[in-house]
Amino acid sequence: MQTENRAQTENRAQTENRAHTDNSAYIDVRNVTVTYAQKKGEFRALDDVSLFVGKGEFICLLGPSGCGKTTLLNVMAGFEKAAKGSVAIDGEAVKRPDPRYVTIFQNYGLLPWRTVRKNVELGLETKKLPRAQRSKIADRYLEMVGLGDFRHHHPGQLSGGMQQRVAIARALAADPEILFMDEPFGALDAITRMKLQDDVRRLSDEEKKTIVFVTHDIEEAVFLADRIVVMTPNPGRIRSIVDVQLGHVRDRTSDEFIMMRDKIFAVFNMKTERTVEYYI
Ligand SMILES: Nc1ncnc2c1ncn2[C@@H]1O[C@H](COP(=O)(O)OP(=O)(O)OP(=O)(O)O)[C@@H](O)[C@H]1O
């Protein structure tokens, strides 16, 4: 047991994060501050945030509403600019969104007038492939997410969970190096959500993509992540980074899973001055 204040905890989180990546960061976020003009003046959505993500890692950004999860994801994906600090992917500064990195949002982003297959093909249209090859690739990924029989349907004929699976198939078909996922299952019921968590975890193992996944659901983060980045608001900062050493096949009812979930709860329950156990 050891006592430390918030600044020391955050400092430790950043140091551990550096040590973890051993200078080989694939996504390299350094001392990033993002500010927004608000009625009361300048608001720091992110304050001096550093995060290094390894190639093939599954990272969950976890925290309460307003802690800057989406802002951090948007900075990495090139949708948002940092007021201070830098973001690089594979050694290249991120200046704008890049087709090598695909973002999946909560609202699926499907085109309602296109069939499911044509929606998946959308991700391939910049690649100038022959039409038949595009359809073949689209069908392969639709099979992978269990929607092979629905390729001629339109999005409006599918449930929310099925539509999100189409969005995932479309993202994977584009063969991106990184998948950014912003609360992709937030609008879904608990059972569908668990099925899609299974899908994404399996796909991440099979396809070996680097995934940055925003969620405010602790169990979702423990089920999916290799590392959980715990964030706190006002201003948005990284409080702690937790290694989830639960292996590839995860059982939500196992003792290890529940212990890990409780450790994350403990991180959120910490007060400014508090007693903590080592949890990493
Ligand atoms: N365009 C903007 N203009 C002004 N303030 C903004 C803007 N975008 C975000 N913010 C503020 O920045 C903070 C962080 O927002 P962000 O969306 O990154 O948080 P979040 O952790 O993803 O929240 P949620 O879980 O609710 O989506 C919030 O307080 C929000 O009000």
From TrEMBL:
Gene3D superfamilies: P-loop containing nucleotide triphosphate hydrolases (3.40.50.300). SMART domains: AAA. Transmembrane segments: none annotated. Residues 29-258 form the ABC transporter domain. PROSITE patterns: ABC_TRANSPORTER_1, ABC_TRANSPORTER_2. GO terms for molecular function: ATP binding; ATP hydrolysis activity. It holds the Pfam family ABC_tran. Residues 7-21 have a biased composition (Basic and acidic residues). Residues 1-22 are annotated as: Disordered. Keywords: ATP-binding, Nucleotide-binding, Transport. It comes from the Bacteria. InterPro entries: AAA+_ATPase, ABC_transporter-like_ATP-bd, ABC_transporter-like_CS, ABC_transporter_ATP-bind, P-loop_NTPase. This is ABC transporter, ATP-binding protein.
